[in-house]
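Quick illustration, no need to memorize.
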Amino acid sequence: MSKKQILIYFICLLLFVALIIVKQKQVRSLRNKPIISTFSEWRQNGKPVFIEHVLPRDVSLFEKLTLRQAGNEVFEGYVPKATQEKLAVGQDIYAESGSNNIIGSISEISNDISLDTGMFYVKAILKKTTDVSNWLVVYVHIDTLLNVICVPNTIIEQEDDRYILWVVADGYAHKRTVVIKRRDGYGAVIAEGLKAEDYVVMRGFTQLSDNDKVKEIHND
């Protein structure tokens, strides 16, 4: 073996030893690094929750109707008594619940029950001709609740015979019992238990216990 080959082998050996030393230092560094668990993170900074400021607002109420096309701009259908009582001639029709786009109005409501269907006849007139072939789902604006506190149905939990949700004050979560005035697809209107200045937990409440420290993430 020549001196040149020996030198090359020696250099390779030194590089191999150097790599081992560097790797050992990396392993020792990782061993000395503190392990941060979810529990320790929550304990130090609080459980992360998305909160929203509750403010009174006007809530529009809609009734969903399924109507069949009877002409270019005419639609008709039958509704149960509970729905018929909420309807009135001239009420606006919308393509989607909560939409501002009025597409027509109720033109006729029968007070006589149909012997064929056991329900009440309803006719609606749309503003323009539609290409819908048969059936159309529409929403009728039936009422507006003024200046009410309304929250999503999904954040309300039921414990025995009471309804609860979570509020945040001074960095801590608190379970709050509320009284629901009415609820539907638009949400739940709260009659008692919430004030305009409250911050309500919208996401993250499933991991909470009463008086937990929380890390607040604002939705608004």
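The mean pLDDT is 83.
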